Amino acid sequence: MMPDLGKYADAVLSAYGVSLLLLVLLVVWTLRQGRRARRALQEVEKRSKRDG
Amino acid sequence: MSMTEETPIPKRPSGFWSYANPVKFLGFSERVLPALCWLSGLCLVVGLIWGFFFTPDDFRQGSTVKIIYLHVPSALMAINAWFMMLVASLIWIIRRHHVSALAAKAAAPVGVVMTLIALFTGAVWGQPMWGTWWAWDPRLTSFLILFLFYLGYMALWAAIDDPDTAADLTSVLCLVGSVFAVLSRYAVNFWNQGLHQGASLSLDKEENVADVFYFPLLVCIAGFVLIFLALVLYRTGTEIRLRRTRALQAREEARS
Questions:
Q1: CA-closest candidate to residue B119, choices B78, B151, B150
Q2: Percentage of chain B surpassing pLDDT 70?
Q3: Do A15 and B237 touch (CB under 8 A)?
Q4: By Cβ atoms counted within 10 A, which residue in A14, A24, B31, B64 is the most buried?
Q5: Which chain B residue is nearest to residue A41, measuring alpha carbons?
């Protein structure tokens, strides 16, 4: 049940669309960066343990 | 006489300052992050759905009033993120805690996204209401300068190889940029006052009707604050891991 946004539908929908898209991109980018950093650290720690 | 009285154990930072220890900080953030993520998601979903679907139009602003649920929380966080970075930078300058400098670094991209959301939603709201996407009004201008400071801050971190030098210089930049964060803060306060008055007046001063906009807005603000905290905690953890990886790699290179 979409509310009737009247003549301002474009403004309201683009505000919600762009904002949510930016938030989602930020979250996805943050998680990807985090996972990559975790993996890289694990590898280096494993190597440094193995090599003493 | 007990052992501790005879041989004083080395003094360790306690309470708040103990989180300057990266291991302790990571442990703490792993513990609180799941709850923080769920809570921020819940607040955002409830607040935005409530605001978008279940609030009436304002008779003067029509449906554009729904933009308030994104614009006000994001503008608030854009400014507060800079203040958080300011506090973290000051802690770095004064106490030299690396976690603090990394927390400031981690907050900048979140702050810049909040600033972008505030600028964009402001523009699409301004167009139908003021008849212009943008006005060189002092408040809007100081907000734009804050946005540029965010970009400069991130560029400076990226441009300097030595992490301590980068932390020092970005801290100074953060201090300078705070002028514009303060300017935007006061400006936004004035503007919000005008906006809130307008909305409540347009609804015949019935306070219970003004609450119709106010409560979902509060939930959205809580959602934006919580998602900011969650993202900054997570990103600070990432920065700590990257720093440790680099340190271990440097040690490997020194050995070989």
A1: B78
A2: 85
A3: no
A4: B64
A5: B245
